[in-house]
Amino acid sequence: MQHKTPVTVLTGAGISVKSGLPVYRDEKGNWIHKQPVQGPKFRASAAIRQRYWCRSYFGWQAFSRATPNDIHRNLTALEQSGFVSHIITQNVDGLHEQAGSKVTVALHGNLSEVICLNCGDVSSRDNLQTRLHDCNPDFLSLDFEVAPDGDANVEDYHIQQFNIAACEHCDGTLQPNVIFYGDNVPKARVSACMENTLNSGLLICMGTSLMVYSGYRFCKAAHEANIPLVIVNRGATRADQLALLKVDHDCNTVLTKLTAALL
């Protein structure tokens, strides 16, 4: 089947819950966990970097094992059928791509990569995990509750004992290759996503409260361009008043029925 009207889908953390990854906010849009680290603070403070990488060290073990669920697979099937022309994801888990999507733009980057802030080298997060193992042999037996963004809730005592690793090429500071809170998405990436949105006949938002402007901007632009907006999300979103249709229901149930009806 080839759908004549391009459909863009914007996804958020809610679609990865069935893959075992937690969400940031409750159904009212309030934070469930502590707010994620701010980019400027990460770069300015060695103590904050130590905290981040310690939490990431424990969270990555579970985060990296996550696999695509039915939502990711159904969106890929709708993409392959021609119904979905573009996917913009606010998630950094790479699960759309693992499910076979060829049209996904990861708005906030991907946690599977690490970048050096000094020389710009991009390397594997799995490789860094091995290096962190070697730097912290006494931490191997510890286990903590997983939180969003591939981190974990670790006590301050353990954080203060944690050793972080530097770039293998220049000994520079390493950062996950993602857009932290407080940082801006690259202009070229935003422009590409905006072009896709404005060339669509329909924008569908799934599993996101849209509280962060980086995703909300596309809903706002679609509304201003008279492009219909459909929101599928359990609970309130920032763009509810802009939507032609709001479905307050489980994303998996809704998408499963939609996929069955279209394919």
List keywords for this structure.
single chain; 263 residues; alpha/beta; Rossmann fold; 6-stranded parallel beta sheet; 3-stranded antiparallel beta sheet; 9 helices; 11 strands
Helix content class = 25-40%
CATH class: Alpha Beta
Discrete helix count = 9
How many separate structural domains? 1
Task: Give your account of this protein's structure.
By secondary structure, the protein is of the alpha/beta class. Helices cover 35% and strands 17% of the residues. It has 9 helices and 11 strands. The protein has helices at residues 39-44, 46-63, 70-81, 95-98, 125-135, 156-161, 187-198, 213-224, 251-262; strands at 7-11, 86-89, 104-106, 109-116, 122-124, 146-147, 151-152, 174-178, 202-206, 229-232, 245-247. The strands form 3 sheets. The protein has a 6-stranded parallel β-sheet with strand order 3-2-1-9-10-11, with helices on one face. A 3-stranded antiparallel β-sheet has the order 5-4-8. Helix 3 packs parallel to helix 9.
